[in-house]
Amino acid sequence: MLPQSSMGNETNIKLPFSFIIFSLIALVLSQILVLINGQMLVNGSFRIPAIWSAAHLLVLGWALMVAMGAMYQLVPVAFLTKIWNEKFGFIQFFVTALGIASFSWMLYVSPQNAFLPGILMLLGILMFLFQMFMTLRKQAKPNILTAFVGSALVCLFLTIFLGITLIYSLQTGFAAEYYQAIFKSHLLMGVTGWFTLLIFGFSYKMAPMFSLSHGFPMVHARYVYGLYMSGLVITLISFFSDNSYLLKAGFFLLLVGFSVFSWHVSIIIKKRLKKKLDHSFSFALAAIGLGNLVHLAAFIALWTEQFSILIGPLVYLYLLLWIVLSIMGYLFKIVPFLWWTYKYSKEMGKRAVPSLKDVMNEQVVVPFFTIFVIAVLAVFLSIIFKSIILFNVGQFVLSIVFIAIALTILNVLKK
Amino acid sequence: MNLKEKVLEALKSVYDPELNINVVDLGLIYNVEVTEEKNVDVTMTLTTPGCPLHDSITTGVRYAVQGIEETKNVEVNLVWEPAWSPDKMTPEGLRLLGR
Question: Residue B41 belongs to what H/E stretch?
């Protein structure tokens, strides 16, 4: 037997919670911004200051901050190594929070002056990347999860670098002929690179953990990694070479990589011991299927003449039904765990303590998440069919359900 | 009831908060040794290495055993080999999982 008395890898709960609380506020604000600029969106004007601001509040203020907070909690769990420097983590939080808040505000009121706040945000993200690099290098035995999470972090760096280049180009005219290619690469690296690879990586730890699966193969993960990474690289090259064949090949590899991931997770879930899965986790699993469908739709759209019209709404669907739904599903598991650990872990064995299920109101998950999916589809259809009424109804419901979800999560802190 | 039996009974009050099953029925307790001096040595595992409830569960086990009046020193050894597998669960544990 190999004894291990204590690992002591836990992160100070205040660190992940700081990120998560900031993110919930950003989520609510982003929805309010989208709601008051609905007319522009329906008319197909995605590239307006208010939408830039809302998109960055949603993607950076909410999703990135949640991902960072979750990583401060999950990296020690998945990689069996302590966070390199917690104090540095708190400083990183303040720098990034200030950077994202000022950047989003500046995008709204004066986008041409967003460069300096962008640099502050960049600094915060670079500090995060440094923290993760220092933490991961301590890992005794790197594995396929390290490859997913490490590559996701590289994609995050590229996303920010390309984003800053875009703003610099807008200000000075630098690399103006490559503006479109840089913009597409920025989206690709951020959405399919950083977020998807990160969710893939942590799903391989969380899916077996939440379903208590045992005896499943892991060889598929290598194919997922190889196929998806090849898809990312080839798609990236196609943007700069303006080669439609390479673009099709890239999208095809991304689709196949994602499909193998879906198949692999279904194998893991079939090997589960826990017969009845938690609702929030079930929605996180459903998000995989929905993300797969969007990949398929994007690949099919590529062969039609409507691709340039469809890709914007499809990116919206991918963001909401794959990335946001996955994160929300896992957030309903992570937040109760963090709070339970803070409040009850020292009481276990001394007195009866509540279970994690008692901490979170699971009953709201099915109605809230179902309404969320329907509202996202309504907004998607309103953009396709240019229906302002459908958009307003869909976005209003979406904003309300986002706020309700944020409050439900914050309510855990009362338990 | 001897001390070893009392320890196992006390450990049934320590639950995996995610699964809501106690550590004994979950098959996490590999061995309990009681010396003549009433020192208790618990050898246990977790369902997966890097389980985020690692310290909570092992501390809970320690507190539960320390709560028995007769015990002197309590040692909790966490081991990863042999790895936990479902066949280590009790029929009650399996029932609680819906199997």
Answer: strand B40-44
Q: What are the two backbone dihedrals, phi and then psi, of residue A314, each rounded to the nearest 5 degrees?
A: -70, -40
Residue A307 contacts residue A290 (beta carbons within 8 Å): no
Residues of B at the A interface, defined by Cβ within 8 angstroms: 13-15, 17-20, 30, 43, 47-67, 76-82, 85-86, 94, 97-99
Range of the domain at B88: 3-97
Domain ranges of chain A: 1-141, 310-415
CA distance B20 to chain A (A): 6
Return the CATH number at B89: 3.30.300.130
Size of interface A-B (CB pairs under 8 A): 111
| pTM confidence score | 0.90
CA distances from A246 to A151, A243, B7, B87 (A): 22, 5, 65, 50
Q: Return the residue in B28, B40, B55, B77 with the most chain A beta carbons within 10 A, the one to mutate for interface testing.
A: B55
Chain A residues with CB-CB distance to B85 below 8 A? 214-215
- By Cβ distance, the residue of B49, B55, B67 closest to A10 is B55
How far is the C-alpha of A299 from the C-alpha of A318, rounded, in Å? 13
Mapped onto helix, strand or coil, the DSSP state of residue A336 is helix
Least Cα distance to A160 among A181, A189, A195, A136 occurs for A189
| Cross-chain Cβ contact B51/A3 below 8 Å | no
* ipTM attached to this prediction: 0.85
Which distant-in-sequence residues (6+ apart) come within 8 Å of A55 by Cβ?
A30
Q: How many CB atoms lie within 10 A of CB B4?
A: 12
| Contact status of A362 with chain B (Cβ, < 8 Å) | no
Segment B27-77, tens digit of pLDDT: 999 999 999 999 999 999 998 877 778 888 999 999 999 999 999 999 999
CB A215 within 8 A of CB A184: no
Cα gap A91→A93, rounded to integer Å: 5
Spell out the alpha helix ranges (H) of A137-174: 144-172
Of A2, A6, A356, the CB nearest to B55: A6
Q: Give residue-wise pLDDT tens across range A288-301.
A: 999 999 999 999 99
**Count of domains observed in chain B:** 1
Asked if residues A269 and A213 have their Cβ atoms less than 8 Å apart, the reply is yes
